[in-house]
Amino acid sequence: MASSSSSSSSSIVGMLVGLGVVLAHIHGCLGVDYKGALTKSLLYYEAQRSGKLPRNQRVQWRGDSGLHDGKDAGIDLVGGYYDAGDNVKFGFPMAFTLTMLSWSVVEYKAQLGAKHELQNALTAIKWGTDYLLKAHTEPNVMYCEVGDGDSDHSCWMRPEDMTTPRTSFRIDSQHPGSDLAGESAAALAAASVAFKSSNPAYSNTLLRHAKQLFDFARNNQGLYQNSVPVAGKFYSSSGFQDELLWASAWLYRATGDQTYLNYLGGSGNTGGTRTAFSWDDKFAGVQILAAKLVLDGKVQPSGLWSDFKSQGEQFLCSCIQKGNNNVKKTPGGLLSFGDWNNLQFVTTATFLATVYSDYLAAKQASIQCVGGLVQPSDLIAFAKSQVDYILGSNPSQMSYMVGFGSNYPTQVHHRGASIVSIKTNPNPVSCQDGFNLWFNRNAPNPNVLTGAVVGGPGANDGYLDQRNNFNMGEAAIANNAPLVGVLAKLA
């Protein structure tokens, strides 16, 4: 009898505790550790490093790799980042990643400093921009990829063991790539703003290269995958007008030079209302930067500038479910853009909402959506809802940031994380042994890819934690970058 009463009372206590957790979450009293998530989101970049690792490397299971990159072309292309769970350095998404990391620092420098993460953020940017500077060997030459996706994807190897070809691919004036050169220009211009006060000499170097790359992109127009078909198999660009505008917007912000503003305002192409913001499509980002110029009184609130602003705002209206063509949501409340690496689009949309809430608040302005007036506080509440979902407030109660919370993906689709560390077992793991011994092993990865944001759940909130489920279980460097700024704001 005593045991049954104690079990019933404990179940009542359990129900009350559960109810309390729900109520606490509803009232925003449940403290999500945004600072911890911020720290981890930047730590992830150290796991993705290629090249000779520094003495202060914090992710200890990684070792040096790709030390001969660029040798086939007679240049030094050591460094930079591996893109996702593979060992290829793809220049196009890497540059976008650096633009977004830099934008995070530009907007939230004070918050990053207050949380003691500013130096880690700048270090994450510099590891990538140092590589972009190396890759830009001449004004009209840019190396855009090291390694080949096909051969790399047919092997499951630690980066430290790689035996796959490390071929270097480039664009030049005879083989143009306005999208790649434009995105690289945007990255270096944004980074020049991020480094302006702490490292002015480096900032100037970044800006010089950014200007050259913008001229290269503008004067030699074409899609980069037409020049480098192997890149197009994995990161095909849908156009380059957005990158040219994106680069001009960032160069204007970095320099104040009217030439770049004139380019942005004279393009005649505002992009229309977009359905996503990503490594491929920068129009929504351009629109939000242009909207800031309108709000700040730098340009006239009419014509093309008015179009930029209203289209950027319409994208945000659709994200917060007050637009003409709202972004789908999962039953648990996550924006649902598609089945493949959905969270990359969630983090970018969340960043735009966060940063635009600040732009509006500074001018005591709001957005007039079809579904009603939207205040800056509404945009932040939306951003917080998406971040909270990613960090575990979802039907599965799973954090989609690896290593955050107590329940997170353990079989992340990632070569380095899924194979025993070279420091634990230095014996090389061959191309096929990697598949046989590690990829096909139904057990948690031996190394935790701390801070990585995976592709995330499907349209019905379901997630399958299996290594071969790359649609959901692969993380990529572009997923994390927008989240850094949002977490800095929320922390």
TrEMBL record:
<feature type="active site">
    <location>
        <position position="413"/>
    </location>
</feature>
<keyword id="KW-0119">Carbohydrate metabolism</keyword>
<feature type="active site">
    <location>
        <position position="474"/>
    </location>
</feature>
<protein>
    <recommendedName>
        <fullName>Endoglucanase</fullName>
        <ecNumber>3.2.1.4</ecNumber>
    </recommendedName>
</protein>
<comment type="similarity">
    <text>Belongs to the glycosyl hydrolase 9 (cellulase E) family.</text>
</comment>
<keyword id="KW-0732">Signal</keyword>
<dbReference type="InterPro" id="IPR008928">
    <property type="entry name" value="6-hairpin_glycosidase_sf"/>
</dbReference>
<feature type="domain" description="Glycoside hydrolase family 9">
    <location>
        <begin position="34"/>
        <end position="487"/>
    </location>
</feature>
<keyword id="KW-0136">Cellulose degradation</keyword>
<dbReference type="GO" id="GO:0030245">
    <property type="term" value="P:cellulose catabolic process"/>
</dbReference>
<feature type="signal peptide">
    <location>
        <begin position="1"/>
        <end position="31"/>
    </location>
</feature>
<dbReference type="InterPro" id="IPR018221">
    <property type="entry name" value="Glyco_hydro_9_His_AS"/>
</dbReference>
<keyword id="KW-0378">Hydrolase</keyword>
<feature type="active site">
    <location>
        <position position="465"/>
    </location>
</feature>
<dbReference type="InterPro" id="IPR033126">
    <property type="entry name" value="Glyco_hydro_9_Asp/Glu_AS"/>
</dbReference>
<keyword id="KW-0326">Glycosidase</keyword>
<keyword id="KW-0624">Polysaccharide degradation</keyword>
<dbReference type="Pfam" id="PF00759">
    <property type="entry name" value="Glyco_hydro_9"/>
</dbReference>
<dbReference type="GO" id="GO:0008810">
    <property type="term" value="F:cellulase activity"/>
</dbReference>
<dbReference type="InterPro" id="IPR012341">
    <property type="entry name" value="6hp_glycosidase-like_sf"/>
</dbReference>
<dbReference type="InterPro" id="IPR001701">
    <property type="entry name" value="Glyco_hydro_9"/>
</dbReference>
